[in-house]
Amino acid sequence: MKTEFYEDNTKGILSYNKSPDIGFEVSLNPYRGCEHGCIYCFARPFHEYLGLSAGIDFETKIFVKMNAPVLLREELSAPSWEPQTVVMSGVTDCYQPFERKFGITRRCLEVFWEFRNPIAIITKNALVTRDIDILARMAEQNLARVNFSITTLDPEIARTMEPRASAPHRRLEAVKQLTSAGIPVNVMIAPIIPGLTDEEIPALTEAAAEAGAQTAAMMMVRLPYGVKHLFEDWLEQHQPLRKQKVLNKIRAMRGGKLNEPDFFKRRRPTGEYAEQMKKLFTLHAKKHGLDRDGSSLTTQHFRRVTDQLQLL
What we know:
The structure is a single chain. Helix content is 37%, strand content 14%. With 312 residues, the chain is an alpha/beta fold. The chain has a seven-stranded mixed sheet. Helix 5 (132-140) links the parallel strand 7 and strand 8 (144-149).
């Protein structure tokens, strides 16, 4: 289906997180909805707040915050702004395919660089390499980090599960380009799909290390609200022989359900299987030197940009 774009005239661009189990406080999302179409995406239900579906509408009706760079400049200029790391793509990917056309993420990066405010990017699109020039300058002052999500090395699974995201080999090549430019990269093996991609943990950590990633992290799949029904339908269509195995393993680590919504529990599955996956990841992350603590980004270079400074 053809993607439709709508202008989102939001009045504020920085979102403040109130969830106690999320590791960041402020995020910036240039788009609502995501053309990548990852079937497991936890952000899908957000589209229902707009009166749209978490299914095909989420992938094909995209809201674009055209004024994001202007709003960002205003918010970083405000005396009330306390310099801190801003996460780009806390909900939907800031490097979706159509970012090539709109360029909103790049213009926001230019603002962050101008203010010397640190940013952490979360993406699964090789398009991030387009902005290596800005990110490398920021990384020199410890102002930027890229978290690259790589779910599987199997091109067929990736093609059906994440249909419009970059192919696995493209993501690994992007990691190489970023790290070669001095930009720190954390590879996120996320989400791990029990009974489908879990067996790839050793290969994924090895590939991440070979690509130059400094650190790695993992997260098991979670299926809030209507996402679980979409995921079940996807399994029936693309992985019918594995469907029950996958669902049973998810239930085994989610207290017999497909989703555990409580804070902390949703991000920390329990049970024997979950512990096995955690140990497997820890073992191979350590083996490939990916178990280091990622260095914290700094706010010491922050400068509040005035009109006079802009002229310089």
